[in-house]
Structure to design on (1202 residues):
């Protein structure tokens, strides 16, 4: 029992430290959002308010309190998971944010999954059938990491499949314009749609996701391949592989073992990609009318909505840190040498 | 580079098989996608043909709430608030004489809204409104004089309501000016008969929406004395008396409004209207052309003409009250010098902007006041054109023989203004002005504009209330938050006082007096108007009834399918 | 070549590897210099291109939105500026910004990754600081790039220096994490212990033994970082906080041209996108040749 705890101490400790890290981050965020130029009172009234009105609004929003009092109130409320009320929507920031994070998370997870499948197949082709034309294409494609912006692919996809060929549905959201979305149970829109069991709804939701997910996965697969191809090559060459080959292990087992050992670097990149997409999918989400947390964050900045900015940043960072933790755990499972708690000397 | 040694690797046939599997999987995925897509597109058409009573509008941003006086009314929010609310009076629509497919609001005529009729006292100071009987709010409460008085009290007591800032000087204190006589009669008293036209216009506009005071008072709290925060946070409540009600609202996705069965006016022809948020204007235009939406809002001029050329779509060509203009800020160098402002007025490439930015969907305004107003004249207004030589002369006279450089600030959210700034930068260089473009995100822009941080900026804006005194005062009132030019000129204020002393602003005599003030303001180049912009809507030709309004929103209740 | 300085991260001596693999001798031993030609041409273009363009890249030289033709090879953009001149002129800004950002973030990332990774398991203040550094980098990585961009541009105004700052911060975290992951992997390997036992100082172990064996993934990611720089500029352009117009810059050109592309006026966005793809691929090609294991 004790040894199980000792073995898992490092990640349990990190999980336990997460709230503390977020708390420190929250203090930093509190000051940063107040440095961003803009004035909530002026934004609210579109500049059509007298100086007295603006003062009254700032009073209402608590912006006239001393900064230290504002910070205290913010941190105290934070402990109760109360991020305050958004000046833009009048809703609790917590509920605003919690309802949007799953939208983005679901979209990016699906895109990354497809990207991972594509990357795995192409990398395997590149490494195990080095002389095939597919290998040449795969290597060229992997060099395009960072060269294919997702939004360019999105526009090309809309242009070809919606504007010219007219086979894709309009990029106007998750469902046909006249359909009503499924009742919200999990806040994950696709999952909710599946749970509704409504065939027409599911078909509509799936077809609306084809273009954005194709564009995103084509853009992200090279990032994964860039780590996967050299990693596979290195591992194919590694003593462990030679041992398996020498001892007559099946080639399937060898491929699995090579992948297992090449995966950690890929996982780190996937985690990083997923993390950056939680807030960074905003251009894609807005291009296909999918909504999501990125749009909310950008709107919060562009309306000087301090409460929303603070809340959305803290939640995004919390979600992403959790993703990173999971990635580290998976890395550990794949390669125990990387365990942080392992003695180094 | 390492390649897998064939001899030691997996047997060749197996490798080939796995490659085949890869190809097959890719093909299967592709075919599933395509089948899915084509199945999808056919079902879209079916849905569209079976439910012709619903209209889909593609709109650029998502509303966040539907209570106008709670502030932060992003683009479609105000438009939707207009559909779900009513005002005491309304401006009637008439056929436009410039565009056969469009109606035009007659802003100088008033018809009954929530008030069935009104009359004016002999001295022109007291307006008596007879309220409509038997009207109920969307929450079912009967409409009375208390709702009217309470609504105006809220508009002055709640700091996020903009009415209090723009209603001066017609209404400054509702407690003394707006009085309930009995349950169905309200009087409004003004201090100067010259404000009468502006008063009627103000109370016909979106800023003067009347709310169900019963519901709002029930939900008021000491911190929220008018229930504004509650109304903001509860988008589905019915506190209005408008033609439509909010049916569903998904932030960042769509808003559905349905016809209000208890509406006091004619029941709208279209039962259900869906506002879809489509951030990209080219996508809005394309989905209109593909028939996925019926109306696309806020298109770029190029997209409008493309859509029109493709057929099946109407765009509207008529004069609006929307102006694009440069504000040279007069309280700081270099535009504190009148000659420099005038030089700037000759350094703007007007025709090039109209061609390159607006593709002919805008005209160079002769003046600033609404030209359709009774009594209006454009006599004596200066005519500016791009004249680099004249601009250099004026700069030399101002003491800048080597030219002037300044920073021109634009809001990044207004692409036509950013494009105009680029045109100005390129051409004003030949006229002695070196322009550095300062593009700002919208929140930073509005804060800097109010603070007076910028040397010059480009704006696109309009006066909703179209009466000469209101229009002239809007951007020029001393100390007003809307005085963006920071131009406070005593000669101008003298001319305005003379005009205002003449009472009714729509007589020929008053028209001539306002013309003098207008000519002076334009001569002084307090603001330089370079484009009068045409409506940015595009509407499927299966839909009729589009009307221009002075607030430039779409009145859905006027629309119908052919 | 010594074992420690191979970039493979594998402690197996080269000679033994070759024997094990039994691969035929190949002609790949020397540097394939021709693979550097595309990247070299790009640098040349950035250096002299702006002097050779047919039109002033920031002047209005024709009717807006003209398709590619004899006079305007890549057409004109929506302002009436020559797209060819702008794409060429932008090479300098983009290569400079991306190079500084990619080099800056990679160097900083490597230093942070190695120092952090080596000391994380240490006791006392050293370990605490190393773990705090790792957490701070992780949190930085968790903040959306677009928000970092929006905030920094709002604070310091849209300028080349600000954009470089944004890009370094955005890419830094990923580079240092890639290094850290490798450091955690190799720090327990026998050759590191061997170096210690041979009496090498800890700092030398860190930078001469661990570092060369840990940086490969971050170098692999270098060209991607290069491209990311341009993509982030484009994303900032979509939000209207990129470099001020009409600065020729591929990202902003893509962002403003994108809407036009849906209306069949593809040239405004397509040519800068092609430039972006060619640039990133050329850098990746040169980079992978540099990193290729030679014998």
């Amino acid at each position: 029992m004790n040894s199980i705890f000792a073995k898992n101490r490092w990640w349990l400790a990190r999980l336990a430290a997460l709230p503390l890290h977020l708390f420190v981050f929250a203090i930093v965020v509190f000051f940063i959002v107040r440095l961003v130029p803009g004035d909530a009172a002026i934004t609210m009234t579109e500049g059509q308010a007298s100086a007295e009105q603006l003062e009254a609004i700032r009073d209402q929003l608590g912006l006239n309190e001393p900064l230290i009092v504002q910070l205290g109130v913010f941190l105290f409320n934070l402990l109760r998971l109360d991020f305050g009320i958004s000046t833009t929507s009048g809703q609790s920031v917590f509920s605003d944010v919690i309802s949007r994070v799953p939208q983005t998370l679901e979209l990016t997870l699906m895109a990354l999954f497809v990207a991972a499948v594509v990357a795995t197949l192409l990398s395997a082709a590149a490494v195990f059938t080095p002389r095939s034309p597919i290998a040449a294409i795969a290597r060229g494609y992997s060099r395009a990491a960072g060269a294919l912006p997702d939004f360019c692919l999105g526009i090309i996809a809309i242009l070809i499949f919606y504007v010219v060929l007219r086979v894709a549905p309009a990029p106007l959201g998750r469902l046909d314009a006249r359909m009503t979305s499924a009742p919200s149970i999990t806040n994950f829109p696709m999952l909710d749609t599946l749970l509704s069991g409504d065939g027409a709804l599911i078909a509509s939701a799936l077809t609306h996701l084809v273009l954005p997910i194709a564009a995103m996965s084509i853009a992200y697969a090279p990032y994964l391949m860039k780590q996967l191809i050299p990693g596979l090559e290195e591992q194919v060459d590694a003593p462990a592989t030679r041992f398996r080959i020498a001892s007559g292990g099946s080639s399937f087992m060898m491929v699995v073992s090579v992948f297992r050992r090449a995966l950690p670097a890929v996982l780190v990149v996937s985690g990083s990609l997923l993390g950056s997409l939680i807030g960074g999918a905003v251009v894609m989400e807005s291009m296909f009318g999918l909504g999501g947390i990125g749009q909310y964050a950008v709107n919060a900045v562009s309306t000087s909505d301090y409460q929303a900015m603070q809340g959305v940043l803290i939640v995004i960072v919390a979600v992403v840190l959790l993703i990173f933790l999971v990635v580290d755990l998976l890395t550990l499972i794949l390669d125990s040498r990387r365990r942080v708690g392992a003695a180094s000397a | 580079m390492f390649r897998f040694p064939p001899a030691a690797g997996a047997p060749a046939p197996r490798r080939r098989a796995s490659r085949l599997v890869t190809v097959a999987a890719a093909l299967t995925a592709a075919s599933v996608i395509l089948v899915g897509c084509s199945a999808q597109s056919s079902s879209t058409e079916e849905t569209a043909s079976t439910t012709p009573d619903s209209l889909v509008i593609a709109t650029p941003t998502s509303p966040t709430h539907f209570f106008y006086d709670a502030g932060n009314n992003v683009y479609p929010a105000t438009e939707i608030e207009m559909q779900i609310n009513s005002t005491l009076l309304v401006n009637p629509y008439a056929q436009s004489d410039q565009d056969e497919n469009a109606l035009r609001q007659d802003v100088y005529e008033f018809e009954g809204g929530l008030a069935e009729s009104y009359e004016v006292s002999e001295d022109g100071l007291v307006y008596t409104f007879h309220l409509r009987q038997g009207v109920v709010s969307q929450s079912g409460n009967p409409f009375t004089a208390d709702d009217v008085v309470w609504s105006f009290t809220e508009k002055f007591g709640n700091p996020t309501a903009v009415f209090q800032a723009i209603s001066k000087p017609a209404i400054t204190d509702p407690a003394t000016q707006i009085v309930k006589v009995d349950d169905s009669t309200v009087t409004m008293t003004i201090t100067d008969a010259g404000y009468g036209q502006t008063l009627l216009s103000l109370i016909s506009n979106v800023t003067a929406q009347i709310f169900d005071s019963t519901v709002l008072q029930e939900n008021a709290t000491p911190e929220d004395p008018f229930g504004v925060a509650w109304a903001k946070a509860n988008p589905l409540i019915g506190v209005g008396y408008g033609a439509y009600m909010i049916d569903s609202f998904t932030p960042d996705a769509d808003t559905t409004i349905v016809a209000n069965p208890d509406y006091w006016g004619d029941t709208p022809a279209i039962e259900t209207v869906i506002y879809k948020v489509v951030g990209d204007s080219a996508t809005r235009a394309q989905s209109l052309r593909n028939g996925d939406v019926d109306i696309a809002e806020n298109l770029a001029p190029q997209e409008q003409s493309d859509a029109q050329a493709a057929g099946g779509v109407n765009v509207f060509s008529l004069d609006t009250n929307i102006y694009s203009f440069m504000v040279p800020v007069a309280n700081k160098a270099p535009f504190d010098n009148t000659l420099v402002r005038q030089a700037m007025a000759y350094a703007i490439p007007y025709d090039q902007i109209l061609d390159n930015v607006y593709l002919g969907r805008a005209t160079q305004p002769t003046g600033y006041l609404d030209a359709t107003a009774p009594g209006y004249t454009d006599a004596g207004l200066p005519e500016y054109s791009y004249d680099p030589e004249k601009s250099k002369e004026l700069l030399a006279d101002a003491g800048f023989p080597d030219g002037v450089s300044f920073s021109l600030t634009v809001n990044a959210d207004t692409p036509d203004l950013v494009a105009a700034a680029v045109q100005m930068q390129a051409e004003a260089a030949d006229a002695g002005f070196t322009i550095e473009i300062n593009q700002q995100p919208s929140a930073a822009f509005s804060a800097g504009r109010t603070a007076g941080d910028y040397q010059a900026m480009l704006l696109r804006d309009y006066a909703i209330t179209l009466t000469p005194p209101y229009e002239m005062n809007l951007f020029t009132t001393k100390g007003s938050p809307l005085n963006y030019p920071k131009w406070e000129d005593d000669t101008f204020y003298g001319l305005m006082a003379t005009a205002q002393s003449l009472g009714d602003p729509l007589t020929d005599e008053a028209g001539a007096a306002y013309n003098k003030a207008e000519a002076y303001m334009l001569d002084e180049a307090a603001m330089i108007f370079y484009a009068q912009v045409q409506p940015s809507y595009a509407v499927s030709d299966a839909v009729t009834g589009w009307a221009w309004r002075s607030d430039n929103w779409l009145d859905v209740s006027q629309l119908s399918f052919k | 070549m010594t074992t420690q300085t191979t970039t493979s991260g594998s402690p197996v001596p080269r000679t033994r590897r070759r024997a094990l693999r039994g691969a035929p001798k190949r002609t790949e031993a020397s540097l394939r210099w021709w693979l550097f030609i595309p990247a070299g041409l790009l640098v040349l273009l950035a250096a002299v291109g702006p002097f050779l363009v047919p039109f002033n890249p920031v002047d209005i030289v024709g009717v807006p939105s003209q398709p590619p033709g004899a006079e305007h090879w890549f057409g004109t953009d929506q302002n009436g500026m020559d797209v060819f001149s702008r794409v060429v002129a932008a090479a300098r800004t983009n290569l400079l910004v991306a190079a500084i950002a990619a080099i800056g973030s990679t160097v900083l990332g490597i230093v942070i990754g190695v120092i952090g990774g080596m000391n994380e398991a240490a006791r006392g203040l050293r370990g605490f600081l190393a773990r705090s550094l790792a957490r701070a980098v992780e949190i930085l990585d968790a903040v959306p790039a677009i928000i970092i961009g929006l905030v920094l541009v709002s604070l310091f105004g849209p300028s080349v220096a600000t954009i470089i700052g944004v890009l370094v911060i955005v890419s830094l975290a990923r580079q240092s994490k890639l290094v850290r992951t490798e450091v955690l992997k190799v720090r327990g390997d026998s050759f590191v212990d061997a170096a210690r036992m041979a009496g090498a100082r800890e700092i030398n172990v860190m930078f001469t033994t661990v570092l060369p064996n840990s940086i490969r993934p971050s170098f692999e990611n270098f060209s991607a970082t290069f491209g990311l720089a341009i993509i982030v500029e484009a994303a900032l352009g979509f939000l209207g906080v990129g470099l001020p117009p009409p600065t020729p810059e591929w990202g902003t050109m893509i962002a403003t041209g994108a809407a036009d592309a849906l209306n069949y006026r593809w040239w405004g966005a397509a040519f800068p996108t092609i430039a972006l793809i060619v640039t990133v691929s050329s850098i990746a090609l040169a980079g992978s040749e540099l990193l290729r294991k030679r014998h």
Remarks:
- The two ends of chain B are 69 Å apart (CA to CA).
- Residues 322-533 of chain B form a domain with the Dipeptide-binding Protein; domain 3 fold (CATH 3.10.105.10).
- The longest helix of chain B spans residues 12-50.
